[in-house]
Design brief:
The protein is mainly β and about 160 residues long. Helix content is about 10%, strand content about 45%. It is built from three helices and ten strands.
Length: about 160
């Protein structure tokens, strides 16, 4: 009782202030609902549901052709028994290096910790303390017919 979305392709992020272009891949997304007990009792027609959650899983990469820096990121899915949700590990590499100068671990929707090759350990980022920035979107009447929000406005209205 879950659904998975496998993201194919890549994205490009440009940092105008530094004239840097990053090519990145995306993790897969999963909507989960049932716990381990469901699988055990499914043949007895007994289902014990949990609160649904969204989960990311799979490997991603980020590469900058200008600087040569790159990162390898793994979004870990929750194991069937035990384990934690939303875990992430990553390694960041300098140009032409095979050994990472920084390793990151933690939760992608919480706190991530960095461990540098110098031995220094520090908080890399705490996503819960980050400010929320409201999206800037043109009004529906100013959008073309096939722009996403205009195209899906009826679905969005009915979902709300």
């Amino acid at each position: 009782m879950s659904i998975g979305v496998h993201n194919i392709g890549q994205g490009c992020v440009t940092c105008l202030d530094y004239d840097e272009h990053y090519i990145l891949t995306f993790p897969n997304g999963y909507g989960r609902q049932v716990n381990a007990l469901f699988a055990i009792f499914v043949f007895n027609a007994l289902s014990i549901l949990t609160v649904p959650w969204i989960e990311l899983g799979g490997e991603c990469s980020i590469n900058c052709s200008k600087t040569g820096y790159n990162a390898s990121i793994v979004f870990h899915t929750k194991p069937f028994y035990g384990g934690k949700k939303h875990r992430i590990t990553a390694e960041i590499f300098s140009p032409n290096d095979k050994k990472p100068f920084c390793s990151i671990e933690g939760e992608w929707n919480g706190v991530m910790y960095a461990k540098y090759s110098t031995g220094e350990n520090t908080v890399f980022i705490d996503t819960k303390k980050m400010p929320t920035i409201k999206k800037k979107v043109r009004k529906l009447e100013d959008q073309d017919d096939f722009e996403s929000r205009c195209l899906w406005k009826d679905v969005t209205y009915n979902l709300k």
